Amino acid sequence: MNGLTPVVAxxxxxxxxxxxxxxxxxxxxxxxxxxxxxxxxYVRMVKFMWPRYDPLMPALxxxxxxxxxxxxxxxxxxxxxxxxxxxxxxLATVMTISITRNVPVNKFVSGLDPDAEPRDxxxxxxxxxxxxxxxxxxxxxxxxxxxxxxxTALTH
Length: 156
Prior knowledge:
Elements: H1 5-36, H2 39-75, H3 80-110, H4 121-124, H5 127-154
Helix pairs in contact: 1-2, 1-5, 2-3, 3-5
């Protein structure tokens, strides 16, 4: 095991933990508020929040993924390596869900006029679908964090 492995693993766990914590806050507070909003309030919330979350979350999850992969390579035959590989795979899954499921919904809603509800809003309202994918990716991010913490402990 390389001497940098504990540092890289700890930095990855930190980035993953911050991202997972932010995601958990959306599950327990922000998304329920969005779901409770009537159409205009929901669209305004997405337009307000998405530009704030979008640059931060990909950077945190991407950094955590790169650091987990780097730590796994540096770990060699260390007992930490399998946990780092699991963390990396889980983080890649989080990013895939974000890119393919949640971001398209955010783009769609950001393009809506909050003062002109579409006639078919009851049919196209994406909140239930977005919430399901957000909850899924949050659970996966928390599992990745557990794997990263385990790996970090195993590097010492």
